[in-house]
Each structure stands twice: as C-alpha cells, then as structure tokens.
Protein 1
Amino acid sequence: MTFVAEALGLTSSAVKRLEEKRILTKAFIKHPFFRDVLDALRLGRKFGGYEEGTLIAKTVEGLEIVSGYPKIRRALTLYPTIKKHFSGDVVLEEKMNGYNVRIVRFGENLYAITRGGFICPYTTEKARLLLDDTFFKDHPNLMLCCEAVGEESPFVPKDVYGIDKIDFFVFDIRDKKSNEALPIKEKERLAEEYGFKIAPILAEVHVSKAHEVAKDVIEDLGRRGREGIVIKDPEMKRQPVKYTTSTANCSDLSFAFRFFGEYGRDFMFSRIIREGFQAFELDDDERFEERCRRLGEAILKAMVESIREVSEGKRIYDKMRLRFYDLEVFELFKEHVKRMGVNAEFSEPVEDSDGYVVWFYRLMKSTTDKIDFILRGNLWQ
Amino acid sequence: MTFVAEALGLTSSAVKRLEEKRILTKAFIKHPFFRDVLDALRLGRKFGGYEEGTLIAKTVEGLEIVSGYPKIRRALTLYPTIKKHFSGDVVLEEKMNGYNVRIVRFGENLYAITRGGFICPYTTEKARLLLDDTFFKDHPNLMLCCEAVGEESPFVPKDVYGIDKIDFFVFDIRDKKSNEALPIKEKERLAEEYGFKIAPILAEVHVSKAHEVAKDVIEDLGRRGREGIVIKDPEMKRQPVKYTTSTANCSDLSFAFRFFGEYGRDFMFSRIIREGFQAFELDDDERFEERCRRLGEAILKAMVESIREVSEGKRIYDKMRLRFYDLEVFELFKEHVKRMGVNAEFSEPVEDSDGYVVWFYRLMKSTTDKIDFILRGNLWQ
C-alpha cells in the first residue's frame, strides 16, 4: 500500500503496522461503478491528525485524502453550555436524522463516503443522480458534508421529512483534506449557486439569548418528530455542538430496545441520561409526567414487540425499502453490506416507474436468539 | 497463610498466587469483638469448588471453612421456566429485600458473614443479640443463611417489613462447609424449635400450576412493595430460582439512576430487560400502560432529583440510620466500611433507650462530579 505511505507521509512499515492492527482497512469494492478509484483504504480510528473515517484513495487523477467527519460533541443542557462554548452570534441549524456522507469527485464521477470511510454504492448512485457535479469541477478541493435523508435509506429510514426516496441536505462544505469548514454564509451562497438543499438554518441569535431560542426550537422540532439542532459559530472557527429532542432520544431507545441483543448498553444509557438533563432543564410537572410515560413506553413497547414476535416463531429484523437504478449497483451493495458484517437478506428487485425497489432485511440474530432462549424457559445469567 | 493451604488442601505457593491475584484477601479486622478468630481470609471469586465469598478462618477451636452463598439464577418468565427446572411440587418462598448473611458460631460467639465473605461488625453485633446460639451448639456443622432486613440496615434499608431496627429471616439452613441445604420442612422445624424467624413460605404447589400461583403471588407482593420469590425444590436437591416484582425492578432502577455515576450499566440494563419479559407475560393493555409510566418515572424522577440537588450545591449521598449497642463496634464498623472502599461519613452517635443511633452517609462522588461537570456547561463525551 505504498500510495498510503506516500499520502500520509509514513514509512511503508508504519503503514503495514496500521494494517495489521486493522486501523487501516479496505474502503471499497473494486468495480467499474467505482472506475475512478484504483485503490482506497480507510482509517478505523483517529490517527496522526486525521479523523476516524478518513479515506485515502489512489484515483485515476492521483492521490486523494478525504478527511473523516469530526465527531460533534453534545450539550446535555442548553444553559450555560451554549454560552460557555461560543461568543457573539450562533447559528441554530437543524440536525437532520439520516446518515452522514461526504460527497467528493474523483476523476469523472461523484463518490459518497459514509461516516466510517467506506465508499457506499447505494449512496454514490443517488449522489450522481441528484447532485450537480459542476460544483466539484469549480471547487476541486471541497467536499459536501450531507445528511442523506428519507424513507429509502439503508441505514436510517425516516418518513418525517416528506421524502419518499432519498435526498441530500448539505450541512457543511469543507476542505477535503484539511477539513476546514466554510463560513455558514459561504455555504449558503454556494448551495444556492449550485442548487443544493441545505439542512434548515432555524435561527441566528446572540449567544446570550441562544438557550432561550433553542428551547423553543427544540420543542417545536420535537413536536414535528425531528432530531435536534447543531449550534454553530457562523464563521465555523469553533467546534459545533449538538443537542437533541426528546422525540429523537426516545426513538433511539425504541430502536435499541427493539434490538436489545444487538445494541450496546452505552447507547441506551446515554439516551436515558440525555432525557434526565432535559427534564431537569425544560420540564414543568405536566411535561415531566408526559416524558416519563414517553420514556417508559419507548423502552418497553419496542422490547415487548420483539418478544411477542419471537413467541410467534418470527425472527427479529429491521426492514428497509431501497431503490436502485442499476441492478449492478444492487449487486455491489449486497457485497458491500456483507463486508460490513451485516446479516442481511434482500427481496427480489421489482421494477417501477423509477428504477427497482428492493426490501433490505437486517437480521437481528442476537436479539432473536436471546429472546428465544428465555422463552424456552432457560434461566438468565 | 499456612492455615489456608491446610484448609483448602493447597500448596503454600498456590495460596500465595491466590493472594497476589487478590482472589484471596483479608476477611476481618483483628479486634477483641472478634476474639474467637485468629485469622480469616475470603475468596473473591469461585475457586476449586468453593463459591465466591467463602470464608477460611483460623479460630480458637481450629480451622473453619464457611462456604459462600451460591448465586441463585433468575427466571425472566414464570412459564415455562418453573416447569422446566423443577418437577413434582415446588415451594414459593418470599425473597426478602435486605442483605444476605451467613451466621455461624466460632468458639464462644456468633459471627455474621456478608455475601462477599467479610465478617461484618454491625451484623455480628445484631446476630449475637437476636439469635439463640444453642442452635449452633446442637448443630456445629450448620449455618443459618439469613436475610438481614429492616430500616436500620447499612446496606439495604427498607421500611416495607415493619421492622424499624433490623432482624434476621432464615431462608436456608446449610452445611457450613459442603453448602448442602436442609429440606424446607427440616428448616421450618429447626427454626420453630430455636425460635428463628423465616422468610415467609407463600405456597407449595405442583409444578404444573406453579406459574399460575406465582403470578398471583408476585402481583400481591408487588402491591405490598416486596421484592419477589425464590422457587425451591422442597428437598433442596435442585438449585432454587428467583423471580422479582416490578416494584423491586423499578426500585432498583430508581436507586441506580439516582446514583448513575456509581452504578453500572449492566445493573440498569438487566432490570429493564426483566420488566420487558414481565410485561410480555403478565400485562393487559391497562397494566402495560401503568408499567410504562412506572418505569419511566423510576428512572427519571431519581435522576432529576440528583441533578436538582447538585444544582443547589448539594452533594449526592445515600443515607442510612444505624444503631449500635457498643461504641467499640461503631469504631470497628467505620474501619470495616473504609476497608471496603466506601466513601463514608458518620454523624456523632446519639444515645436513646436502646443503644446509640448513628447516621451513615455514603457519598456518591462520581454522580456528584458528573452532574456538576455538566451543569457547569461542559460537553458530554
């Protein structure tokens, strides 16, 4: 992997060690659909100034480094957290609930890179269809950091956005390699110029009032089933901070407890803690009572649903509707999912007026097996 | 520690290794109150056929091994679990909510050993006061396995039993060394003969009907704030199985989320999972709704209470009322608690008509610090 050594400025033995430790792993499947990429590896964790999920690619036009999207830290209370971390004005931007992809151009085509640093065939196909690539010709050093959102999502399908297929919402425009983000005004101007949708900018407000405005915004977003906000420095010089709605926390908990064999305890615990701090900051008695009910129901309904299904002899799975325009991409996606270690099944593709619809079943074997074990009368621990 | 080598039939270098690995550690504080014990060590985990919490003591009358109390496994559903693990009749015994101690006699005095294998000064003082030691003279090979229950408990204070101080309820009588348990009838007969209280025996029923009876028993216990049941083979040849009420699960969760910095995620997760299976097995719609509310409230109320207290500048602690008859034992208990690594503070003892009352504060530094950190506006992760 001499191109990685060259790209990162490392010795080849250092690269070899990274590979042995599985920090550096394959980032794509060689295929004509990815014809501009000769080879590509990804960083499985932060290394030498590069974020986790950084892609190092050898393309037809030379070496490329696409920096991983930085982890955004979380506020558990709006006050005094926003005030402490920003000064002057802040922008409250909607944090949409989809999956994070970076869109870049290599050679003649666009490529969509997931948070983990994989080139995703599903997302790449949609990016090529939906995004104007003249932006990338005009700005070869930039990448679009987008939320891929909609019902036809292989990772986070959501219907609250009124998007029945999938679409991209730009939240950052960054330098591919340095990861430096453009100021928000500049992002808006470029998005406007090239016709990109952006994650809604909900308010720009002085930091001294931001927690008050954020409180109303969060309440409104929660009512509408949305995920939350990212609080940003308009100049993007300070690190953004995120904060989520109770709706999102509970939706995460439902998901985690529906598939409790697959999901980690830390995932569950962190969402519950978020609810505790939000209750402390935002609730009166009535809202608190409603929150308790919502939390309990989010956890138990999902779990009981899974137990009931196994008791009826069913297996537990997550089910997503997907759409492909080229069946070769479907084949590629199947292979991609397999390499990610997902236990998946797919329906036969059915052609409609706009490509092929496929159902993607993600089998939750651990949840299924654990429930089955208990329902057969076995003891816990 | 040659006496341990002799007692367990090990070489002295094997014993040394156990000590180096901290599997074998000190089990008591040398003191005239424990005058019959010359030395004593405990097993921090299962080893060579001995349970975790086994005590190996060199006493004035020779070597003693007191086997650790075996872990009782848990049913997550009543049916078919009871049916699968037992045959013929089963006894449903109340699982009281206190702390497990084994009472033995060494030399001239009784000793109370906690689950972990420590000789506890607090419990020992009460055992000597409350339990008839002729039993131990008549049956030197036996130990009483008791739940120490009541309001004045240093570990699990509960007021649901109407015991304002502390009392002992025998649930097993076992051979000290072999850990073999007497049949339930034999336990009842001996308890009657020597005037010991026992954990209530709630039903004896054929295994084919046990889940139905247990369901009613659990519901009744839950309403009364009790912990649950232990399902036992009357002959005690099969391993007992436990099952808890929703009240107990939620009470555990309240405790864990009140002190969420101190308590493990596994502790929380396991209680939530219990509620899921119980909901599946026992609830109609109305009960399920009530359970969701109860679960959410158990979690959030406790957490918000802690957050609120820290926001008011308070530290988070657990507070227990204790009673000592001899102030020397209080001193000994303070040292005991310190050695257990508990961050404790005590009030000055106040004499009343029956000994000295002391308040025992267990400081929850991690919870306090975590909340304080967040409330100062710091970011999570």
Protein 2
Amino acid sequence: MTFTSAVKAILSNYESDNPGTRANLARILTHGRLGGTGKLIILPVDQGFEHGPARSFAINPDAYDPHYHYQLAIDAGLNAYAAPLGALEAGAGTFAGQIPTILKINSSNSWASGINQAVTGSVEDALRLGCAAIGFTVYPAADDMFDMMEEIREMSAEAKSVGIPTVIWSYPRGGKLTKEGELALDVGAYAAHIAALMGAHIIKVKLPSAHIEQKEAKPMYGDGDWSTQGLRVAHVVKSCFNGRRIVVFSGGASKDIDAVYQDARDIRDGGGNGSIIGRNTFQRPRAEAMAMLDRLVSIYKGEE
Amino acid sequence: MTFTSAVKAILSNYESDNPGTRANLARILTHGRLGGTGKLIILPVDQGFEHGPARSFAINPDAYDPHYHYQLAIDAGLNAYAAPLGALEAGAGTFAGQIPTILKINSSNSWASGINQAVTGSVEDALRLGCAAIGFTVYPAADDMFDMMEEIREMSAEAKSVGIPTVIWSYPRGGKLTKEGELALDVGAYAAHIAALMGAHIIKVKLPSAHIEQKEAKPMYGDGDWSTQGLRVAHVVKSCFNGRRIVVFSGGASKDIDAVYQDARDIRDGGGNGSIIGRNTFQRPRAEAMAMLDRLVSIYKGEE
Amino acid sequence: MTFTSAVKAILSNYESDNPGTRANLARILTHGRLGGTGKLIILPVDQGFEHGPARSFAINPDAYDPHYHYQLAIDAGLNAYAAPLGALEAGAGTFAGQIPTILKINSSNSWASGINQAVTGSVEDALRLGCAAIGFTVYPAADDMFDMMEEIREMSAEAKSVGIPTVIWSYPRGGKLTKEGELALDVGAYAAHIAALMGAHIIKVKLPSAHIEQKEAKPMYGDGDWSTQGLRVAHVVKSCFNGRRIVVFSGGASKDIDAVYQDARDIRDGGGNGSIIGRNTFQRPRAEAMAMLDRLVSIYKGEE
Amino acid sequence: MTFTSAVKAILSNYESDNPGTRANLARILTHGRLGGTGKLIILPVDQGFEHGPARSFAINPDAYDPHYHYQLAIDAGLNAYAAPLGALEAGAGTFAGQIPTILKINSSNSWASGINQAVTGSVEDALRLGCAAIGFTVYPAADDMFDMMEEIREMSAEAKSVGIPTVIWSYPRGGKLTKEGELALDVGAYAAHIAALMGAHIIKVKLPSAHIEQKEAKPMYGDGDWSTQGLRVAHVVKSCFNGRRIVVFSGGASKDIDAVYQDARDIRDGGGNGSIIGRNTFQRPRAEAMAMLDRLVSIYKGEE
Amino acid sequence: MTFTSAVKAILSNYESDNPGTRANLARILTHGRLGGTGKLIILPVDQGFEHGPARSFAINPDAYDPHYHYQLAIDAGLNAYAAPLGALEAGAGTFAGQIPTILKINSSNSWASGINQAVTGSVEDALRLGCAAIGFTVYPAADDMFDMMEEIREMSAEAKSVGIPTVIWSYPRGGKLTKEGELALDVGAYAAHIAALMGAHIIKVKLPSAHIEQKEAKPMYGDGDWSTQGLRVAHVVKSCFNGRRIVVFSGGASKDIDAVYQDARDIRDGGGNGSIIGRNTFQRPRAEAMAMLDRLVSIYKGEE
C-alpha cells in the first residue's frame, strides 16, 4: 500500500484543491517504485521538439519510437512520463493506465527568435488522453514572461476546475539576466517562488549554482552557507512556501553517471522531492538507463 | 456588535452595488479589532513576487511560510489579508472563515522590462477561495496603462456581478512622469480619482509628498496649504468622490517604527480609512510586529 | 405633455431602431425644461478623468462630490447627465429616475502617450445603472482610430440590441491632422458624418471654425459662405444625414458667459440640437451656473 | 417572371451554399430592370466614409440625404443598393422590401495611416436590417492583408450559415505593389481569384489596364492579346473559377458619360456580370443620373 | 475490398483518435487505385492562391475550372483532392461522395510581406463540405511560427473532436534558416518531427537534400549514409515516430517526368507513404497527366 503518511502529508499542503486534483497528485505520488515515499522520478521527453529528432535520438535509435519511452518509464517503475501532444497520442491507447502521464502543453524549438514557446496542447487534450497533469514552461526574466504567465494562469485554472494539477517548468532566461545568472541561487529560488505563487502544484527548476546574480539580493545571501548543493536545494525548497509545494530538479545535458547520482543525493538531502531526468535516461542504451534508474530509486529510498 | 453607524455610513456610499458586494465590504469593515470603526488595517504580502523570496523573507525566515501571514493577520486582529493566488491557496483551507482575504490578481517581478503586470488570478479563483475582494494594480502614466485599465474594468465588472468588491492599487509610474512625480500630491490625488472613476470600492495609494508635478495643475494648488501629511491625505480623500470611497495608504519600504505610527496618525487625521502595511510588518520579528500592530490599532481607534 | 410633434419627428428618423432604443432617446428628448422642444442640454462630467480632480473641481470644491452634478443637472432641468462609471455608480441609487444618464464608456487622461482611450465601462454597466445611453469618444485621424471604431461598433451593436442608444464624441485628432485642422469645418463635418455612418444616435462634435483643412475638400467649400457660426453648424447638421441624426455641440474650455450664449444661439439658428456643456457649468459657482443654464434654456426655446 | 434560365444557371454554380444564401443571391439577380438577365447594376454609396461628405455630396446636395440613394436605386430599377451601417439604418424602415441592400461592413477614411479598414458592421446588423448580402473590402498586397482576410473569413462563414451571401471588394494596394500595378491585368485577375478562393459569392474589382506588373507572370501573358478592355474583362472572369462566380466591375472616379457606357459594353462583351457604379451616379443631377442608368440597363440588355 | 491489413496497421498507430477521425483517415487510405495499399497520391491545388491564376493555369487553361481538378483526381483514381475554401465550394455539390477532399485552411500569396499565411477556412467549413481532413501550413523557423503553431493547435483540436484528421504542410522557411537549409535533411526531419509532435495525422514535407544545416546536428549525421534519396526519406519517416505517422512528400515545381517517377520510387523505397503532387499534374495536358498518374500508381503498387 503506497498511500502512506508521507503522501498524506504532502497532499495536505494542497488544501485548496478539489478532490480530483489531489487524486491526480496522489496518482503520481503513489505510482512506481518510489510510490509512497514522497519522492519522485519523472521521465520527460520533449527534446525532439527542443533540439530535433536526430540530436535527441540518433545516439539510441530505439528512442525514435514514442512507445520506447512509455515502456522505459513503466519498466523502471518511475512515477510519471511527460511529453508533448503527439508523442502522448502515439502511445496513450497502448499504455493506458500503466503510468501517470503529464502533457507538456507548450514547446519551443531550435529556431525560436524570441524567448517564448508555442502552446501546443490543452487541458481538454490532457483529459481525453487520461493525463494526470499538465506541464508548462515559463521563462522568468524574458520579455514575454507576462504573456507566458497569463497563458498558464488561464490553462491552470481550467485544469484545476477539472481535477488536473499543473507542473511549471520555471526556467529563468532572457531580459537583463546573464548566462551565469540563469543558474544563480537567488534567481532559481525566485523562479521557484514565482511558480508557487502562480499556483503550480509541482515546481520544476534547475539545480542552482552558488552564484548570486541580483545586486539587491546579495545582502540577504551574504552570510549564508551555500557551498554545497544540498544547502542550495534546501533554500529552493524553502522558497516554495517553506516546503509546502513539491519541487523537482532537472538534470541538464547528459553527463557522467556519478554526477547524476550525486545530484540525486543532494536533492534528497536538501529536502527536494526528486528528479526529472530526460536526456540522461534515453540517450543511454536501455539496459544502462534501467540500471541508472534503479540506482536513483535506491538513492531516493535512502538506501545509499 | 460591529455593524455600527460608521460602517452603515460607509456602505451607504456604495449605493449602486448589489447586496453581495456590500456584504463583502461589510465583512472587511466589521472584522478584527478595528471592526466597526470605519478604519482598516490590511496585511498585504506580494513582495515575494515583486522582489523575490530572500529579499522579502530572509530577515524573518518564518515568513517563508504562507501560514505565518494568515496567523499574524488573525492574531493581530487586522481587517484583511491580501496575497497572490498561490499564497492564498496554501492557507485558504486551514484558515477559512478566520479572516477576510483579498486575492491580488496581478503581479510584477524584478525582471519586468515594461511597466505592467501579469494577470495571475481571476474572479473565479476569488470565489472558490472564499475571498472578500480582488486587488489589482494600475500604473497611471505608464505606456500600458490603457491595457491595465481595460483588464481591471473587465475583471471588476465580473467581480461586481458575483458580489466581490475591487481594491485598486493606483501607483503612478512610467511615461512622462519623473521619479519625484510618482509621489507628488497632484499625481497621487489624480491616481486616486482615476481609481474611483474606474469603479474601485477600495483605493490604495501611497502617502503623497508636497511636490506638485504637473505644470497645468500648479495654479490649482498654488495657494493651498499642503505642508502637513494630514492635509495631503485629506486632499486625496476629497479626490475620491469627496470621501465617498474607502481610501487606504501604503507604508512603503520598512522604516523607523515611529514614522509608521506618525503615518497612521496623519492618515487618521486627514480622514483616510487606514493602512495597508506589508514589509513593515512581516520583516520584523513576530512579537515586534504584533506590538506595532497593536499600537496602530490604538491610533486608528483615536486612543493616542 | 412633452411627447410633441417635434419629438415624434426626430424619433421617426431612427426608423431602424427597436422600440427600446427609441424609447430611451425619447426619455432624453422629453426630459427637463427643454423636453418636447427637440432641443437638448446635456451636462458631461469626465474632466476629472481627462485632467485630474484639482484642475476640474478645485475652483468650485463642491464639485468634487458626484452628487453635486446629478443635483445640478436635475435642478437646472437639463435633458441628461453624462459621466464615467465610478461617478455614476456614486449617485445612481440616490437619483434613480430623476434624470436620464449617459454612461461614458471610454476615457483618457493627462498621461496618455497615444491618441486613444481606455474602455472603462460596458453596456451591462449602463443597464444595471439605469442609463438612457452610452457615450464613446472616437478620434478620427488618430493612428488608433480603426481600433476605436471597432470597439464602439461592437459595443454599440450590443447596446442597440438591449435598447440603449449610442452617443459618439467624434473629435478629430492625431495622424496627419494639424492643430488648426482639428476644428476645421471640413474636418468637423467629416467627423460628424463618420459618426453617423457608424450608427450613432446622437453625435457630439466641437463647434467648427471657418478653416478648411483638406486640400481635396477645398474646391467643395470654395464658393460657400462659412463666415458665421450658424452657417457652419448648418453644414455639420447637413453632413449628419441631412439632419436625420441628433447633433449636439460642445463648448470647449470655460469662457466668457456671453460667448456661451452666442454659441447656443448659433447652434439653434444653424439647426443643431443643442449643447453639451461641462466646464462652463461646474467650474462656476452653483448659483451662477444655474442662472446661465436658465438662459441657455430660454435661448433654445427661442425666447431670446 | 424573372427566375429565368440565366438566373438558374448562375445559381447552379453556388452548389455548396444553403438555400438561404442562394435565395438571397436570387433576390439580387431577379430584382429591377435587369432582373432575370444575369446582369447587375449595383449602387454603392460609401464615399462619404472614404472621402467625407462635402467631397461626395456637395456637387449634388440632395445626396446628403440617405433616402435619396435608396429612392434613386429603386426608381432606376437597379439590382441592389450598398452602403455602410448608418446609411442603411437611416432608410431601411422606409424602403423595406423595395430593393435588395448590401451592408458594407468595413470602411476606411481619408486619414488612414495604414492600408486597412475598420470593421463597422456585422452579420447581425445585416439580418436585422433585412439585407441581401454583406460587402467587405480586402487589399491584396497590403501589409495587413492577412488580417483583413481573416476578418472576412470569419464574417463570411457566419453570413453563409444564416443565408447571407458575401460580396468582396478586392482592391490590390500597398506592399510592394506600384501605383500602376494596382490596375494591372495580372494583379486584378489575381485579386479576383483570391476573392473567389476565399469563398466570395460576388467579386468586385476594378477594370484592369493592359499593364502586366509581376515579373514572374509576364511569360504567361506574353503572347496573349490584351489590347481591348473586353478581352481583359474576359480574363478576369476566367480567373474567377472559369466564370462560376459573379464578377462586377467598378467605374472609378466620375468621368465622361460616354466612357461609362463604353465600360459597360466592354464588361458585357467580356462576360462580366455588371457594374457597381457610385460617384458616376450620385454626383450628377438626378435626372441626368436616371438617364444614364437607363442607358446602362439598355446596354446590359444588349439593346445597344 | 480495400480495408486491408496494411490499412489496419496504419490505423492502429492512431490509437488515441476517436473512431470518427480514424474513419476519415480510412476513407483516404481505402479510396482510389491505391486504396488498401497504405500508399497515397493526393492532388493539391492551391497554387492559384500562392502564385496567381495565370501562372498556375494559363499553360493548361482547362485548369481554371475547379471542376477540372475534381474530375482529374477522380478519373485518375487518386486518394484525395486538397484545395482552399472557394475551390472546394465550387465543386463539392457536384462531386459529393466521389473523392475524399482536404480543405486547405490557410494560404499565402505572392505579396506576403512576412512568412506567414492567412487562415481562410475552418473546421465547420470542412464539415459542411463533407471533407475528410483539413490541411494547414506551418513554417518552422519563421518569426511567426509560434503563432502558426497555436492556430493549428486550436483548429486541429476542434477537428479531432468532430472526427476530422489534420494534414500539416511543414515547410521550414525564414528566421535564421538559409535558402539551402530549407531543404536540408536535418531541417526536413526536424520539421516533420515537429508536425508529428503537434498531433498531425498526415505529415507533408519536401524531399530533402543531403545537406546538413544545423551545426549542432552535424555530429549526429556525420557517419550516416545520406547519399540516396531513399535513405533520406527513410530518415524522415523514422523522425515521424518511427513510422507511426503517415508521411507524404511534395514534388516541388513542375519538372522532367522521369524525375517525378524517380521521386516516387525513392519515396516508396524509403518507406514514405506517397506523393502530394500538384503543379506536375495540372500543368500538363490532361491526357499526359493521366498517363503520369497511372505510372505513379504502378510505382507505388511496386509494379515497376
């Protein structure tokens, strides 16, 4: 039985949501090998939209097939699988009921001239495809951020009314922000906080560096200890309503596997809720990916 | 019994509103330790959106938790608590019925490239969260002011039809306005008047300086006495339909506590309806904030 | 009995309107001391929006109170009172049924960076406040004029369907138009004609000068006699479907009282339907304003 | 009886339209002195909007009155009368049922800064005024052409669903087009073809010159004979689905009366469906206009 | 019987679509001489919109008549005929039920100043005209691509809900893309993948060259063999969900007939689903076009 006190404690933080929305959050929290632990691993596959098919899948050609990702997430016992409309449509029938899915409802691509995304899915799509949540990217700091915020406000409100939670990918980019600033601790915590204030149920941010970007914020961080990733994760979690919202961290470009494991330990130790890990998963051979995910599950279970 | 003649007199000015809207105004006017006096203290917490979490809460880390602000406003006997969507959602279940809430339905942040805000909440949100009012910022003088006015016109009309009053934060900024002009008496009175003409039930402006910004307005102010803050408050109140609308004043950045008290006395003596006071409250330790609010209540009660 | 043949003749020109719309026109035409004459005096008070409260009301401080204007229009026996949303809301309950009101549904202010206005009211507002008409400003020649025209087209259609007539303030400004051209005879007649073609029931323009602005129009005016204001009024009236639409003229900035009377005589003699007169009314002491309006009534009655 | 085989043949080309739309086309095709011939003369009066009242009507002052045009079109036995909203509203009651009317639902004016028009009427207006069709101008080549096309797409679809046909004024202007190109044969045929592809029932274009504007199109026209107006008309008609759509031609600025007659003969001989003739009609004294229209009817009947 | 296992296998890939949508896909897959083979030839005629009537049809004047194309597609036994609104309206009655039609719902023309198209049709149009699908062009890389994607997202969702599949013409153009890049293999595969992710049922792309445009993609293509068109087609097909979506290729400008045949063989050998071939068809005399289409059918049947 995975409806544990850890799950109940998390759900109790969503005190204003209707039972349908909380039930879908519970679907994600109780599914897979981490079901019931309050920890999560989500497989996101939107890199084909962002970078094109060859850059995403040529290294592991089985991954051209949308069924590959469904099956991988199911077999690895992950909590959820997230993808854009077409990719979910291509497997939602076959895998119905086998894993919670998250419909990514906006997407960018390599040719974007502005820092924005196109809305490519809807709450109605999420309902007809049996999804447990919608996902939406905002770019705090971008010139178009207000438009993006208004888009997700509207879609999130519609989703809440029909029992669908919202995952916000909050990725600071653009405007006056420097490249280094995109990963700064103050910026990441601020981006996570904005997502929380916009009413996100699950907040997805990048693991922050120890850099502090904003001059006005420096005094607040001056005498803190931000030297370890775990402490920085803890600050982000605190910035999400003192831990009242689920926060997951993305892994970035594919990298050394030990770094992946260390990230997970830091997320766990800092009180984060888990990983959302795409390229590091499907850009490895399946067996290798399965082994990696198995160890990540162990880490989140506190077994290593 | 807090449904006093002072409250009845104020409500009678809202002669075109339906009973639902007047009842929600009455909820705010009759709640807390100032209930029935016609005076108000409102706790607003949207600085996390505007300046980020660390700049807002690091000085008093308990304030990272949305429940902290609900509890503070309740324990201090304030009239209402105002915050953006996510922050209200995080406590609306726990504190339902304990204090009137105001949903702030638009917000800006530190990266805004234009002088505008994103709409981040709705009248439906206010209804499902049991709010007593919605709050909206307009920036008279900004290039986007017409768009902002049309947004609040539409949302305010919807709110009125379902019995929800509107609070307009009328903050002149942008366009041809100088920095000094943002706090000018003529500008502040004009901004308050615009809010009244747009149909606001409660008007929130900054305490004005004695500066007169607009050349064409100078003759009108030339021979008046604007040397005291109380006289300036009185002019703003007069500009709100000769006192037929509730006007509250914001305190600005946190400052010396005696200045806070003096502001309240001036607001009271000038005929203003009260204070909306955020950073000066939650950026102090709770005990200190409670003591400060206790004295503000006394001031508005005319006890000192 | 004010449902005179003059009123019937005017109403018969609105041959495509439903009975509700014609009844509201009749309310205006039959009300007050000019009721039944086919002549009109309307009190408009939107200068607080346009120029701010002090510039509008400091000279006659009683005018800060929205009730002042309602009472003045009623006591002077005018045909209607026009104001923005908030100002009508502040008195619509008290004065319900005592005077026809016109809801001004768009407004500008001193900080406008473009030549446009914000929509600040709606047909639904007009209905719930018991108004007899809506009022809308268009700026023919302005870069945004097409947007303004499309706004009033939509709102006017909605209004007609629920029996509410439309008053169009047609004020040429912006674009290639010179300052002198704003008051030119050809321009004013053109602006009035555009309002008629857009389906306005009542057309409000400024009294035109003898200047001809448009090169292409000069041959058409070359051998006409435009030396007197009455002749120019007659040309504007002719441009409004040969007199099939009600045309009223605004007085401009407050000025010498004899000039006000002369304007009224010229409007009357040129076949115009009346005056819409704001600052010249409420920027004088009440007794003086009452006396002036009394004489204007006499003039429109042809008594002097 | 005017429901002739010529009319039936034309109607049979509108094979996808509902009976309501075909019935309204039939109303136009069977009305007046050309009723049943498959030929049309339409009186359009929107020059007051485009050029102002004096430039349009001062030469024949009776034309200031909207009833003048209704009566002229009726007395001359024309097929239809087209005008903007206000002008139709001013006569639709008096002349109901006496002549088919076309509501021109967009209009420009002398101050337009861009090459576009404002939408000033609606399908609902057409229905309540008893119109037989709506009319809409598009400017192929203009920077805003896509917006205009999307406007008429939406309104035309609505119109078709309630049995109202669409007349498209397809006037190439703006963008990379030269002044001479606006009347070029290739451009005019292309503009007419676009109108047909957008689903217009009646296509209104200008009589084309023999100039070929587009470099890429020149080879297609190189060895054709385009020396006579009749041949050019025939090419435009062919470009409208090989004659499956009604095409009428406008006359341009008022000109020598013999040129008007010759144009009509060329339209007739080239297989065009008729003339839409405004300024050449109402800018002459009524008797002269009546005589001219009488001869045009004779020409279209093939009597001269 | 054309409801073969090949058809069933294709339909099974559309596992999330409702029966209505799959039935319409089946209509296309089972119609004509290739019915049941899983291969398709579609006749598209939107060149009149894109290039004008003379450039499209003067070479074969019978093609000015919309019936010509219907009849050609029917007589040649093609799977479907695609055209803009007006062209379908002109034949949908006569040819109802004789061939599946695809309503092309957006179109550009020779004067477009931006890289975009106007929406010129709707799902409702498709339903009333009995179409089996809608078609929509997106220009990945164009500055307006997000707007185009959002348009088709909305219309495609509406279409799916009423059982209408979507064909996306995915043509990379604009932005930072070079002219050579428009046909690059990586770019074409990416464009096809984006169409798949947006939820297209049928994807239409151009036959790609061996050029690789994107620097970041080069490593992925470095050691592959892209020397033959068949291999490149196979890569595009793989990029469409590993072959789970129907992909058809366009032929471009009219060209040597042997090149047309070779293209078809390459499409077939690379696993593509067929050709969408316009100018190469209707810009030849009918007999020649019929013979060409006959041979293309043979090629797709694997008979040569």
